[in-house]
Specification:
- With 322 residues, the protein is an alpha/beta fold.
- Helices cover 25% and strands 15% of the residues.
- The strands form 2 sheets. Strands 9-8-5-4-3-1-10 form a 7-stranded mixed β-sheet.
- Helix 3 (122-127) links the parallel strand 4 and strand 5.
- The termini are far apart.
- The model is unreliable at 288-322 (pLDDT under 50).
């Protein structure tokens, strides 16, 4: 399995300086709780997954792509990577992809997911011409996964904790990844490296991902976020990351140019551009702030809700949106 179209700057190292991408933040809901994630921030100087200035609806996102095509002549990829999980509430994601595919058939479409709901939507993604999917796979041992995921949504909607939740997530990830590979969709695996938790386990992740059909792996060093269960863990240093990538590289090619992009990233990989910074976001009327900007994100570290979409009103510093 190859890494798909060479115009994708994440899947092809040589394209990252010549081909641009945009991320459309249409996916507010999430279905797991990761120990390193807090999506209740928006900082113009903060580049990490899960961060966005606004959540868009599909129509807004499609119109934004029209503007992006005119503003970024080197644009080759439209992706959806959050700020929650694109398949936790698949309606807005699939509608957005359909609108973009209809209006701009020459653009590549991609998606980044935790994999929990992936098996249910592989056929729909294939029908829309999604050619690249990234699956975050942090552990292939439920005991390790239990230290990374406080809880995971089960089939019946209840929260599964510990190894039970991690095992359910892993089974769904493995099924989804294998189905993607059989469908001819290029698969990249993202693995967040958490020192003392899964750093010695990453090679096992790479081995299993390769067996399932992944074509590329991206080992991402933990970004400690205050207030999260793993917020007190130090980020891995360069030596550890080099060692992890060397071990994982025995099984899968390693992506080494990752920019750890925001959910509203835009432009060339690594230039720090965002949809707002490039003037691509639609105008939004002033509205009063009520609680946090993302559905289901209360002041407690509970699981994200899975109801409608909502913007993050005017946050410009590293603080909670309230």
């Amino acid at each position: 399995m190859n890494a798909g179209d060479s115009r994708h700057p994440c899947f092809t190292a040589g394209a990252h300086a010549t081909h641009a991408r945009i991320h459309l933040p249409v996916a507010a809901a999430c279905n797991i709780r990761c120990g390193y994630c807090d999506r209740r921030h928006d900082c113009v100087n903060e580049s990490r997954p899960g961060v966005t200035s606004r959540v868009l609806n599909p129509a807004e996102a499609a119109q934004l792509v029209d503007r992006a095509v005119a503003a970024l002549p080197h644009l080759s990829v439209v992706g959806i990577a959050g700020p929650g999980d694109p398949l936790a509430n698949p309606g807005p994601t699939l509608e957005t992809l359909a609108l973009v595919r209809r209006a701009h058939p020459g653009l590549l479409l991609c998606l980044s997911t935790n994999g929990l709901a992936l098996p249910d939507h592989v056929d729909a993604l294939g029908a829309l011409g999604v050619g690249h999917v990234t699956v975050t796979l942090n552990a292939v041992d439920p005991e390790v996964g239990a230290r990374l995921y406080p809880h995971v949504t089960g089939e019946d909607g209840r929260a599964l904790h510990g190894a039970e939740g991690a095992a359910h997530l892993l089974a769904r990830q493995e099924e989804g990844l294998a189905r993607l590979a059989r469908a001819g969709i290029a698969v990249k695996v993202n693995t967040v490296v958490v020192p003392g938790v899964n750093d010695a386990h990453v090679e096992a992740v790479a081995r299993r991902a390769a067996a399932l059909g992944a074509s590329l792996m991206n080992c991402i060093g933990l970004i400690p976020v205050a207030g999260t269960p793993l917020g007190g863990v130090e980020a891995p240093g360069p030596r550890l990351m080099d060692a992890v990538r060397a071990a994982a590289g025995r099984h899968l090619p390693q992506m080494r140019h990752c920019a750890r992009c925001r959910a509203d990233a835009a432009g060339l990989l690594g230039d720090g551009g965002t949809l707002g910074g490039l003037g691509l976001l639609p105008m939004q009327p002033e509205r009063p702030r009520h609680g946090h900007g993302l559905p289901g994100q209360s002041g407690q570290s509970g699981m994200s809700g899975q109801s409608g979409q909502s913007g993050m009103w005017g946050c410009t510093g590293r603080r909670r949106c309230d």
